[in-house]
Amino acid sequence: MEKETLTIVKIGGNVIDDSEKLHYFLEDFSKLKGAKILVHGGGKIATEMGISLGIEPKMVDGRRITDIQTLRIVTMAYAGLINKNVVAQLQAKNCNAIGLSGADGNTIRAVKRPVKTIDYGFVGDLSETSIAVDTINGLLNIGLVPVFCAITHDGDTQLLNTNADTIASAIAVAMSAAYTTTLVYCFEKKGVLRDVEDDNSVVSEIRMGQFEQLKEEGVVSGGMIPKLHNAFEAIRSGVSAVYIGQAEELLREGQQSGTRLIK
Ligand SMILES: Nc1ncnc2c1ncn2[C@@H]1O[C@H](COP(=O)(O)OP(=O)(O)O)[C@@H](O)[C@H]1O
Ligand SMILES: CC(=O)N[C@@H](CCC(=O)OP(=O)(O)O)C(=O)O
């Protein structure tokens, strides 16, 4: 029997921070047919909240060093303010969303990142068993649309901050046993660009081997490195298709641009 389709969409902090862009994104997302899951970031808002409270952000390789004060801020921002606003906006668009952190329903259990050369603090790493597939499947089966934020837990009272691109990839991989999955990374640019300043320089397809080359050439940098790393991890582990680009081009029917990843 053919598997049902499931679309996992990740939306990044630059879109979430722009109320007009967010409105149009949620409009497109709510119209998406079939089973779907939304994962949102919000790094930009957390950074601004931190700065206003006198806490300077520290990022290493696209991941936030999360001390106890930063954990409080990201929990308020991701699991509170952003998650609940996104859910309320989806409800207004007749999309029956349910907002979740990884602690809710034990849906995403993580392990605090071990200290090697860098102590990331309360940052959670995911493994193959982190995602509660049956629970998420149960939510989908009663017609709910799960909306995950970037907060996970360790099962022993500790909340952890986990990169939202990683969460989206891990959910897509875990759900691939039961569904034909498509993972879509929506952000403010038209795709992976040859020249970050030029929106007309979209690289339409990237193969796994090309990624290393693009990194070496400095074509991809910053947050794009972990995004592509997670995206290739997904395609290697059973996800049928991965796209990176703008929501209006990737979620609307008939539109198919942005960057497609190839094994
Ligand atoms: N080649 C590239 N193409 C597009 N964006 C790139 C590229 N290299 C670096 N970037 C940067 O990566 C950022 C996206 O990563 P990130 O901020 O983590 O995404 P998100 O908004 O989804 O959280 C872009 O805003 C851009 O500044
Ligand atoms: C550990 C870690 O880096 N967590 C991320 C989670 C949010 C996120 O991923 O937000 P964007 O998608 O908007 O970048 C952070 O705090 O920035």
From TrEMBL:
Pathway: Amino-acid biosynthesis; L-arginine biosynthesis; N(2)-acetyl-L-ornithine from L-glutamate: step 2/4. Coiled coil: none annotated. Its EC number is 2.7.2.8. GO terms for biological process: L-arginine biosynthetic process via ornithine. Residues 6-244 form the Aspartate/glutamate/uridylate kinase domain. It is an enzyme of class 2 (transferase). Its main location: cytoplasm. GO terms for molecular function: acetylglutamate kinase activity; ATP binding. The keyword Amino-acid biosynthesis applies. The keyword Kinase applies. It catalyses: N-acetyl-L-glutamate + ATP = N-acetyl-L-glutamyl 5-phosphate + ADP. The record marks 10, 227 as: Transition state stabilizer. Substrate binds at residues 42-43, 64, 161. GO terms for cellular component: cytoplasm. Belongs to the acetylglutamate kinase family. ArgB subfamily. Catalyzes the ATP-dependent phosphorylation of N-acetyl-L-glutamate. This is Acetylglutamate kinase. It comes from Pedobacter duraquae.
